[in-house]
Design a protein that fits this description.
Layout: E1 2-11, E2 17-20, H1 22-32, E3 36-43, E4 48-54, H2 57-70, H3 96-105, E5 108-114, E6 117-118, E7 124-130, E8 136-146
Pfam families: YjbQ (PF01894)
Protein name: Secondary thiamine-phosphate synthase enzyme
Length: 147
């Protein structure tokens, strides 16, 4: 049984952004030498998510519009009452909507590996969804299986 664990970083450029991280995950899989197993991808933040879906710009706009309808940045949230919270740094953003969206989407995905490749459908990609950017984001990739 082989195991490979990597921490990867990505810079996001907008408040809400969808980033395709499939190639970076594939690179870790190649480096691991694992042929049969699984890869787990986990966001190390509470205001971004990991999802498997189609890499298509117009779909990204639909995703953004849909999610921001569910949890609008302009909504009234107790988390955004920064003056009522304890030990808040001066640069703390009002980002309750981003936390809520991340909870809906989830912070991780697990993808099977077969013959050294990710088992993804024709239109599937591994996506990191930023809801509170722009920021530097970190995600973990762990590959487990046999060589």
């Amino acid at each position: 049984m082989s195991n490979c664990y990597k921490i990867l970083n990505i810079s996001t450029g907008r408040p809400f952004e969808v980033c395709d991280i499939t190639e970076q995950v594939e690179s870790v899989v190649r480096e691991s030498g694992v042929l049969e197993g699984t890869v787990a991808i986990t966001s190390l933040h509470t205001t971004c998510a990991i999802s498997v879906n189609e890499n298509e710009e117009r779909l990204f706009e639909d995703i953004r519009n849909f999610l921001l309808t569910i949890a609008s940045p302009e909504g009234s949230y107790k988390h955004n009452d920064l003056h009522l919270r304890i030990n808040i740094p001066p640069d703390e953003p009002e980002n309750a909507h981003a936390h809520l969206i991340a909870m809906i989407l989830g912070n991780s995905e697990t993808v099977p590996l077969h013959d050294g490749a990710l088992v993804l459908g024709r239109y599937q990609s591994i996506l990191l969804l930023e809801m509170d950017g722009p920021r530097e984001r970190t995600y973990a990739v762990q590959v487990v299986g046999v060589s």
